[in-house]
Specification:
148 residues, mainly alpha, Arc Repressor Mutant, subunit A, three-stranded antiparallel sheet
Amino acid sequence: MPDTIPPSVNALLKLREKLCSELRSLGIRERALRAKLVQVDGVLRMLGEADPEFPGRRKRPASPFAKREVKRRILDVLRDAPQPLTTSQVAIRVMEARGLSTDDPGAVKLVQKAVVAVLRRGVEFVDVGRDGRAKRWGLAAILNERPD
């Protein structure tokens, strides 16, 4: 005897199929509208007008650091640190070394995100444990040299 699908589940499956179909058609429509916007923007640039941004897109805040500067600053901070530092401590010391104000929590958070990204990617950085919830970081070369 075959399993039968309850009517309520069947109705939900049909509704889901319909919504997926509408979503696909909206995606196609969005791509077409964005292509038209690109064409209009091209004509505006040819006429010397400013380049407007796409609606609904948020611009990322500009980084106060040059390319690869965050990594160099982190290396300097961790090299001079007597013991491993938390991510927040590294971010604040990087900001101070760059001459940025640490009073603005938004700016600290932005720099902290950049610091975390560099620390997670870099092979020269070692996660040496946690201090509560915060990770402690050190330089692999320095930690290997220190006697235990």
